Amino acid sequence: VDIIPVYLEGKYRLFRPVRAIVGEPIRAQEFPEGAYSDEKAEKVCERIREVFYKLRDKMTNTSASKKETAK
Q: What is the pTM of this model?
């Protein structure tokens, strides 16, 4: 199953605005095939973490650019 990564920024409260950035799908073909193992699970988690951090950095850079433009 493909994974759609989403990074959320803001206070998680009812009716509060939250910014979201949606990344490209992580295709199931990228994950190791075969029987489950701790090593395979760690590789999947590592890939998801990598994408998540890139989305966070992209959100941070976008926020900084908007602040610079507003000046």
A: 0.70
Distance (Å) of CA 10 to CA 2, 38, 51, 52, 55: 26, 33, 19, 16, 14
Rounded to 5°, the CA angle 11-45-49 comes to 45
Q: CB within 8 A of 12, min separation 6: which ones?
A: 18
Identify whether the C-beta of residue 8 lies closer than 8 Å to the C-beta of residue 18.
Answer: yes
Q: What are the pLDDT digits (tens) for 27-61?
A: 988 887 888 889 888 988 999 999 999 999 998 88
Cα separations (Å) of 2 from 32, 38, 48, 51? 13, 20, 11, 13
